[in-house]
Design goal:
alpha/beta; eleven-stranded mixed sheet; two-stranded antiparallel ribbon
């Protein structure tokens, strides 16, 4: 028990120290509160659209409300205030601080919002798991907030989850859906997703390879049309994407100036993750072994969510030992003690 309390203390002191400027507010918790919970910390993006009711539901599941997380200004796709610890580039937005605080070990679970990739892209840029659902955490689904993207597309943001451990996201969602598995699932799959993966050997899935090589160069309207068509044909669509914001950065504000800036924007390698929320797809992203790269699994059928997690677990890479050792050992931040 003492070790457990010390671990909590380190997480909170790290949040207060705020070495990456990713925390806006910290909620220290009493030892009694800590020992009565499952031992998991939760951070929430600094936006109004994440309901207090949803946060309370997660607290009932044992997640301690720990931090308010910094978001990029005006929901921008990059955050000029934060740096990605893996690449040294600007952190991908807009749920930038939420993803960083999970990566650093301050929190076990992050709650963000996604309009055009704002949960999925930051998660992928740090080799984390991301998840969005159009109805998750929205108390008034019929009166959802409507925004306009930088490229002129109307959308309603989804609430999303970020974690190092897919099990956290799966456990939260399995409490909210019918767990009954479907007998047969059809998958439209990016040819690039086959490399090193024996997904075709998983029984119960019917697979069809799709050509998605132009997903980074197409504008959002084209991608929306493509993805809607694919999701009408298949139960689940799988796209391999990234590395996100390693060579370029996927920011429409920068990219709209000229062909040259647009090309640099496309080098960010953001594909269908840019429009998954805009077509109201339930979407899961899981990391590969490569920096900033992941699989994006999308469906419009609520009954497919258990299969989404089954496939996601088959595709997801193990945690990188070097990264965990370098960034995940909290004691490294406190050489002089707490």
């Amino acid at each position: 028990m003492e070790k457990r309390v010390q671990n909590y203390a380190k997480k909170t002191f790290l949040a207060i120290d705020n070495p990456y400027r990713s925390v806006k507010k910290v909620y220290p918790n009493s030892i009694d509160h800590i020992t009565e919970t499952t031992g998991y910390y939760m951070g929430v993006k600094e936006v109004k659209s994440i309901s207090a009711k949803f946060i309370a539901e997660l607290e009932e599941q044992g997640y301690v409300y720990h931090t308010v997380d910094k978001a990029s200004l005006s929901g921008r796709a990059i955050d000029l205030d934060l740096i990605n610890p893996l690449t040294g580039n600007y952190m991908t937005g807009s749920s930038s601080g939420t993803a960083l605080n999970v990566f650093l070990g301050i929190n076990d679970l992050g709650i963000g919002t996604d309009g055009g990739g704002s949960v999925l892209a930051p998660a992928m840029s740090l080799n984390l798991c991301g998840f969005i659902h159009p109805d998750l955490g929205n108390e008034n689904v019929e009166n959802k907030e409507v925004k306009v993207s930088t490229d002129g597309i109307s959308f309603s943001p989804s609430v999303g989850l970020i974690s190092k451990d897919l099990e956290h996201i799966e456990a939260i969602m399995m409490k909210r859906i019918d767990k009954k598995a479907t007998a047969s699932v059809s998958i439209g799959m990016d040819q690039a997703a086959l490399s090193g993966i024996e997904l075709l050997e998983i029984s119960g899935y019917e697979n069809c390879l799709l050509e998605m090589t132009d997903k980074y160069s197409k504008d959002r309207n084209e991608l929306i049309a493509d993805l809607n068509k694919q999701l009408d044909m298949f139960d689940i669509v799988v796209s391999k994407e990234g590395p996100v914001d390693v060579t370029g950065f996927g920011d429409t504000i920068f990219g709209h100036f000229s062909e040259e800036t647009r090309h640099y924007q496309q080098l960010a390698n953001k594909g269908y993750l840019r429009v998954a929320n805009m077509v109201n797809a339930v979407t899961l992203s899981v990391p590969t072994t490569q920096l900033g790269e992941g699989y994006v699994l999308m469906t419009k059928n609520e009954a497919m969510i258990p299969s989404l997690f089954s496939i996601g677990k088959a595709l997801s890479a193990e945690k990188d030992e070097l990264i965990e050792r370098y960034f995940g050992e909290l004691s490294k931040y406190f050489d002089m003690g707490l």
